Structure of Putative glutathione S-transferase:
Amino acid sequence: MAYVNPQGEFNRDQRYITTRITADGRDGYPVEPGRYRLVVARACPWANRAIIVRRLLGLEDVLSMGIAGPTHDERSWTFDLDPDGRDPVLGIERLQEAYFKRIPGYEKGITVPAIVDVPTGQVVTNDFAQITLDLSGEWTKFHRTGAPKLYPEELRDQIDKVNRFVFADVNNGVYRAGFAGTQEAYEAAYERLFARLDKLSELLAGQRYLVGDTITEADVRLFTTLARFDAAYHGHFKCNRSKLTEMPVLWAYARDLFQTPGFGDTTDFVHIKQHYYIVHKDINPTGIVPAGPDLSGWLTEHGREKLGGRPFGDGTPPPPPPPAEVVPAGHGVTP
């Protein structure tokens, strides 16, 4: 399976299944405890967003989560982490099966995160950007006591604006560099990425979070790219002007979030490296996974408290993850 565009610039296919799960069920899928299953891969930054938001909002008991392995082939993500290679709730080996139940012969990407309707076994949506917004806005009846407001109405215009340029230049920007097929396309993406990271550094030098004085959806979206920067994007995608650890403001910001419950404890560096270095064979044909980088710095003091801010606003931190959802020993960073 080829990822690099030999013609030059990488363009992400953004044709998703846009059906929504809403409080009023207007698309035919009302919010219901226990009805749906969120399928993720810890390796994937887009899925990691959903893992974090679900955890921060305390939706574990109402929206179950299936975890695919870190690698996949051209057909699908697979449930090779489960004992018999099948998701224990959906009973399938490949996420592709749930897509085909909804749309036979589905020809677009079999992507994570995806939410599956358990009774029918059909994918409801894989629209990753809308999924997390709906977890905040449509599932509020089932949020835990003390859940933060990640997408408050009074800040939505600002959050949306930040999300647009962070997606274009950073979240997708690293892929535009990594999957570029010409020198010119790569250099354009490289320059755009680091110009945006420099602007974000300027912004975050004076405020603890991207929008307002609490963690919002915007911080979740930036974090999942920063968490993968040195482990994958710096080397594998040639985003090598600077490591994250060499950008002082962003490194401190990322550590602040990493040390916040729900962020670092959902980050699996082993899966991250396996995914990028094994799956993208046209970039790394040997499939060799790098031994580094050193991860110990993620738990060092960040000093961001001096900027003020309250991570969860009037809310509280989430409790520890359920035992079945703990990142495996040796895959993350432990105190």
